[in-house]
Batch of 3 targets.
Target 1
Amino acid sequence: MSKHTKAITLAFTGASGAPYGLRLLECLLAADYQVFLLISSAARVVLATEEEFQLPAGTDAAKAKLVERLGCDPDKLTVCGKEEWFSPVASGSAAPKQMVICPCSAGSVAAIAHGMSDNLTERAADVVIKERGQLLLVVRETPFSTIHLENMHKLSQMGVTIMPAAPGFYHQPQSIDDLVDFMVARILDHLGIEQGLVPRWGYSGK
Ligand SMILES: Cc1cc2nc3c(=O)[nH]c(=O)nc-3n(C[C@H](O)[C@H](O)[C@H](O)COP(=O)(O)O)c2cc1C
């Protein structure tokens, strides 16, 4: 990967909201990003439950299935194993400066807030925080406990962006896809990636 390539780390963890993650992946690849994708074991269960999408355990087989589903350029996607410690995302010397965890479980929030670095997603997030990069957590849980809120507060104070998976309704969504696009549009906005997924507030002509 050249240092001029646009690169980003994306992690799917085991919170509800697999459609957000898949749509975000599709948009990042369409925006010509090199995507390092991390998928937790629980995220695979959620993908199977919510999307009826069974991802094989191996990284090459998982990548092949994602490329087939999204019709994307295989050279742009790298699927990393959860203990692939030699992945570029595991070191500040090579990791992309931007990372999104979408959807993000309360368990992963807790691990990241305490610097656990026990799997590649937690380590990659730890790297982005220590390198003062941009980390977005699309957290999904309801209600939030005091533990969840304290962990998110701690991360927010370090500059991590907490973006609850809480789509608005003011764009008058007609479908689940519209709700998904609302969230993905806000994520892309924060990453500085041009998008036209939903009309902007005040510009819709309504
Ligand atoms: C179908 C399904 C939905 C889940 N939804 C949530 C959720 O919305 N939020 C959450 O924090 N955990 C949720 N969980 C539980 C997490 O998957 C579990 O805590 C897991 O250990 C998280 O691990 P991970 O962060 O490494 O993926 C869900 C689990 C399953 C199987």
Target 2
Amino acid sequence: MDKIKEGLCSLVQKIKKEGLDSYETDVSKVTREVPINKSIVALNTSGCSYKKEGVGCFHCGHLKGYEHSERMFEQFLSDVERIEEKNKISIYSNGSFFDSREISEDSQKAILQHLKNLGFRQIVLETRPEHIKKERLEKLLNDLDKTELLVGLGFDTYSDKIRDLCLNKGFLRKDYNNATRILADLNIQFESRIVIKPPFLTEREGIDEAIKSVRYAFDRGSEYISLEPIALQPHTLQDYLHKIGKYRAPWLWSILSIISETHNLGKINIGGENFYPIPYEVAHNCHNCDIRIKTVLKQFEKTQNIEDISEISCKCKKEWIYDLKKGAPNLYDRIERVLEKF
Ligand SMILES: [Zn+2]
């Protein structure tokens, strides 16, 4: 590992360590208490195994798993009972559903079987690409109608350099390609998640990189793209950079601009808010237009029609344009300057 990456890893390790004591590990409880109009069950697993191997993803706010993960299946059964709408259910596991170190193969099968028996029409799962294994998936889905699954893949970004340096995701574009190939072979739909504005990127670079990533992910056969604007969660790299004046959560104008460039390629959803821990700041413009634009974005998700998007205006657009013109030294120098002060 080169010096810059090593320095960043120690910085993030320190940031995350500071949050461990105050971290609420009962994600099931937190998810039940948050009023969102989506059917979500969060599993109290032992936590993302990638995190356990080191510092984990720089932008991820999950700090550790649940202390009694052996009770996860009972917790799932009780949480799923409260969901009445049987159209679509999202199972969040703060990691990878198909990673047997987090959710045993028996539990994976039992969860899917139970959801099918309850009559859910679509089940959304999430996983890192390396856990998409053809034989295992075939075996797991043998008794299930696999077209009901939608697998959320955190592709995050096109550039291997940005994915590694700014996010520390620990996989390459070719790993994502491999996962998409297997899912396509098995006729399983997938949604690729694309982050907007990884830490250290400028607003302009954030937009350009997201557009490139969305195009690529549609080319790879994604049924949906979920745009995930980076949110400010405590004890993450973006939180640290924000506090030293080196990061602003993405502008909503940037999201609108990405959608305008890519909406004709396929279906786009907008995430970035239903994260745990709950962010203290998310993508925003100004107080005069935030609510208006978020309403239009919600509408867009339903209709995929950009007519309303093109009509929005607000005085703050000038500030955004000013931000877009801001230059920055090369990525390594930017990181080095932050590390010098750490
Ligand atoms: Zn505004």
Target 3
Amino acid sequence: MWLERLLLMTPRQRLSTSLETNGVGAWLGRLLLMPSRHRLSTSLETNGGWVWPVRLLRVPPRQRLSTSLEMSGVGVWLVRLLLAFLLLPLAACATVPSEAPQATKRIALTFDDVPRGPGAFLTQEERTDRLIAALKGARVRQAAFFVNPGNIADPGRAGAEARIARYVRAGHVLANHSFTHPHLNATSAADYLANIDQAEAWLKGREGRRPWFRFPFLDEGGADKIKRDAIRAGLAQRGLKNGYVTVDASDWNMEALAIEAKAAGKTIDMDALRDLYVESHVQAAEFYDGLARRTLSRSPAHVMLLHETDLAAFWIDDMVAALRRAGWEIVSADEAFADPVSALMPDVPSAQGTLTEALAWEKGLPAPRWYERNTISLANRLFATRVLKETPAQ
Ligand SMILES: [Zn+2]
């Protein structure tokens, strides 16, 4: 079907279509970018590897062509290979279409609930020290810290203002996460906007301040569309933009489980906790990027939701390294929030959660529209078995 459609087109249309076709585009694109002498061996390695040519060499020469066509999948492979060579002259004179898929997946890191209360392992000073050092070591030049200024005066978080200033001196930026972290569904629109204003009064004129508001609990009004629209209008009046997230792995739950386990005197396998933390965030990034590509037909610059946790202080550099190994580029929060998706205001039955989920829902994409480990019962089971080595109750 793919080939038939392609043959019906003009030569000019063929190249861009073949690049757009799912799977084939990536394969062909990679092949065309290579020096000629690498092309044959790469194409043989693709789709089944060397098993096929080795099997073919055992067949008498005159049977080889028909055998190769009969082998499962090989016919398709051969046609693709021939097509690749036929298209080479076209590729030489055609410029790469501007709508070519993004070669790199991009993501920015954002930390909520700053200043957060104590975690399981570190003092708040140690946590800030390690987080700044780990971000610097991982060459993350600009992350965003979403602040709840109402928690700065908490006696249990002494020195919070100075710690926040240190994030800014390290190159990171600050934005509004409300003054006291209210749930929008339990607050009137007027009180909610007043709470935002209180936080903005603290942020105003501060170095590193950005005009973004992150909804606490990612609650944007739920099913109450009147309230949702009142807050949307209120933010616009104030010159604030939604500091949405597109990738979420519920790191707050992992941190809460670590605090609980530590308080209960349980043995925590720190290597297993690191692996679970890193793996879950890379999987979440991949899951939401797939969802975004199906929704938007492109990969937007993503925004990852994290919190100011001991886990981030320990392993943010490991996570960044794992993301890069998976083909991700870490971009600034400024770059991510400049993506065209930032202007979208999806209209779905309940306004909450990630922007990726809402856009997919609006487009009618089937569930699941959230990464499976955001289901807390599943996340808790993984933590118990992998980090605490507990046997789950039957
Ligand atoms: Zn929060």
